[in-house]
Amino acid sequence: MFLPAYRAADPVRTYFVFKGAWSFLFALAFTLSMVYYVADVGLDPLQLVLVGTTLELACFLFEVPTGIVADLYSRRLSIIIGCALIGAGILLQGLVPAFLAILAAQVLWGIGYTFVSGADHAWITDEIGADRIGPVFVREQQIGLTATIAGTVTAGAFGLISLPLPMTLAGAGMMLLAIALFVVMPERHFERRTERQTFRRMGQTFKAGLQIARTRPVVRTLVLISLISGLSSEAFDRLWTVKILEFDFPELFGTSDPAFWFTVLALVGTLLSLAASLVANKVSPERVNALHPNGLLALLSLFQLTGVIAFALFGNLCLALVAMWVNRVAGSLSYPIESAWLNRNLESGSRATVISMVSQANAIGQSVGGPPLGALAGRTTLRTALVVSGLILTPIPLLYLRLRPARTSVVQEI
Question: Are 344 and 135 in contact (CB under 8 A)?
Fold first, then answer.
């Protein structure tokens, strides 16, 4: 049996601090990671895609098993193990600037990510109840974006000294976060099972989660959308940096260093996402927290695919950046809305498993879609690969619009 917290804190406050620290450390680690891969390690576009594919394969192989562990043994334990493994992976790629070391780091922190994926949302939903979770996820998004701003600025400052330095600090920080969660993270509303019960019920939990994913329209559709998003996102996430580096950066404050400019770009994108989240929740909270937000999600997904295609086509730096930020802001707004919608359609006993299945579908998409689009970029042009990446997203708005509120949801809304 895993040891309980020494000084159990309020779950909502713990969750907000955890997600804030998580966002800060991820921004610290990854704001300049792509620049580090290209400038210090010397990776070419194909290697960049292979780095992402390795990460997604690790997520694909371990997403469901770690989700089952979270559902049957301890979500708190799953989160703590995940943070420790993520920290070790980030630390490795910061300390060893070599292609093989970076591939090994992707496996390590990818496995760690699957321990946290699904378990964090399932944990807080159980601790406070599904009826209160929507506003918490929206607030989490705002806290996370604020922490990302701080992490981005910090990464830029340290990156001007040394590109791997922010990654090294972030890896150590993630390990310290795991220790802090071990001390204060409560788990009061989860029934742990014995080892015998755990192994006996693993298959049952997986089958129950699979049945939910197959039979409930909202869950089934979100799994399919996650798969399609993955098919598109791997190429865009890995190759947008290459396109931006093709432009000449203007000199500002006496420097045109890519580390400085990528920090500025990440900071502006995060500020825009935060502002959009605050405005949307203020102007139209009933849409953001709706029980069946398919229309809003369809609109946001349309903005996402438009942003990807426009980014690919624009030959002007400013226009390309605007298109990229449109895509990022729409994605940031849709994430907490979709997460709350998914959690409302799941039971506690299989919640983390089903959430992991959704993430696994995304990992499958990225693993399958990334290499062909990377090869396409090599055989044709980077622009062609990015346009195709955007076109892959076109079914998503239609999939959202096809979903209709169930009779029970309509009654609840009335």
Answer: no
CA-CA distance, 355 to 359, in Å (whole number)? Answer: 6
Per-residue model confidence as pLDDT tens digits over 270-289 = 788 778 777 766 655 555 55
Tokens of 236: 């865009």
For the whole model, what pTM was predicted?
0.69
Q: Where are the domains of the chain?
A: 11-183+194-413
Tell me the per-residue pLDDT of 99-128, one tens digit each, with 9 for 90 and over: 999 999 999 998 999 899 878 888 888 888
User: How far is it, in rounded angstroms, from Cα 327 to Cα 321?
Assistant: 10
Which tokens sit at 302?
């349309």
**Separation of alpha carbons 345 and 360, rounded Å:** 18
The length of the chain is: 414
CA distance 46 to 67: 31
CA distances in angstroms from 26 to 214, 314, 359, listed in the order given = 33, 29, 18
Alpha-carbon span 80 to 116, nearest angstrom: 8
CB-based burial, 191-205: b 16+ in 10 Å, e otherwise: eeeeeeebeebbeeb
What φ, ψ does residue 252 adopt, rounded to 5°? -140, 130
Sign for the pseudo-dihedral over CA of 91, 96, 97, 101: negative
**Using CA of residue 342, residue 273, residue 158, residue 160, what is the dihedral sign?**
positive
Q: How far is CA 52 from each of CA 32, 106, 119, 201, rounded to the nearest angstrom?
A: 15, 8, 23, 33
Segment holding 77, helix H or strand E: helix 75-95
* Pairwise CA distance, residues 73 & 414, whole Å: 38
Which residue(s) pair with 252 in the sheet?
255
Sign of CA dihedral 103, 174, 121, 353: positive
CATH 1.20.1250.20: does it fit domain 11-183+194-413?
Answer: yes
Mean pLDDT for all residues in the chain: 82
Q: Model confidence over 122-145: pLDDT tens digits? A: 888 888 887 777 788 878 878 888
Exposed, middle or buried by CB within 10 Å (0-12, 13-18, 19+), for 250? exposed
Two tokens, residue 150: 């701080």
Q: Please name the residue ranges forming H helices in 129-246.
A: 133-159, 165-184, 195-215, 217-245
Determine the Cα–Cα distance for residues 7 and 256; give it in Å rounded to an integer.
Answer: 48
Q: Which of 333, 336, 338 is nearest to 276 (CA)?
A: 333
